[in-house]
Amino acid sequence: MGLLKPKRDKYEDKLIADMSDKQRKDKAERLEEQRDDVVRRIEKLMVRISKEMKNSKLRERPFPLGNSPNDRDLDEYDYKMAALYNNMSSAFSDLGERAVCEECCFKAIEILEHNAGCNGEIAVTLVNLAHLYHEEDPFDERIYEFMDKAWELLISDENEQDGNFAFLCSKCAPSFGFFGYFEKEAELKKLTEKIYALS
Q1: Considering just the CA atoms, what is the radius of gyration of the chain in Å?
Q2: pLDDT higher than threshold 80 for residue 21
Q3: How far is it, in rounded angstroms, from Cα 199 to Cα 189?
Q4: Helices H, strands E: what count in the chain?
Q5: How many CB atoms lie within 10 A of CB 59?
Q6: 85: helix, coil or strand?
Q7: pLDDT tens string 61-115
């Protein structure tokens, strides 16, 4: 899967049309540098995770998005693959690549669902999807489907009330307020404080 051209709106198209040749060339070079930087970030992350898994007994399997010789040590549904997809999602989001970002989020959720005790991580990814859809269309009904599902996962009795879960709740809480779930935001903040106090 290659990098796509960053999406532009009509206003930006007009700005580019009004630029001089030098300004357009400078802008193109800056965009190219940004894409190269994202690619380097992804490659470094792939290598780091791969090295961490070198001594594992996981079966060898080609990494679905990579071409690096270092990417053949991760199991398809290993938890760290979800972290990799979420980091890639963030990187592609920086490039304005909404479709690729969305694909990475859904792949991360698929992987996390194969791992026990990942409700908090799935909730964070759902919240990220809600923000991604909001950027495209603030009235998209799927935004609230994502947030409602995230809430169900965060209040599940299956969740281990530890520091990691408290951290994930703290990451989600502001987004519930952003989307108008003020009571849920307050409840998550209270839960976070309670868990940290008992830790």
Answers
A1: 20
A2: no
A3: 15
A4: 8, 0
A5: 8
A6: helix
A7: 333 444 443 444 567 888 888 988 888 888 888 778 888 899 999 999 999 999 9
Residue type, 95: L
| Structural contact between residues 53 and 61, judged by C-beta atoms closer than 8 angstroms | no
* SS3 state of residue 127: helix
**CA-CA-CA-CA torsion for 64, 65, 68, 73, nearest 10 degrees?**
-40
| Integer Cα distance of 199 and 195 in angstroms | 6
Please, are residues 109 and 128 in contact by the beta-carbon 8 Å criterion?
Answer: no
Instruction: Please give the model's pTM, rounded to 2 decimal places.
Output: 0.67
State the pLDDT at residue 29. Answer: 79
Q: What is the pLDDT of residue 126?
A: 98
Residue with tokens 């549904």: 77
Instruction: Give the separation between CA 48 and CA 70, rounded to whole angstroms.
Output: 9
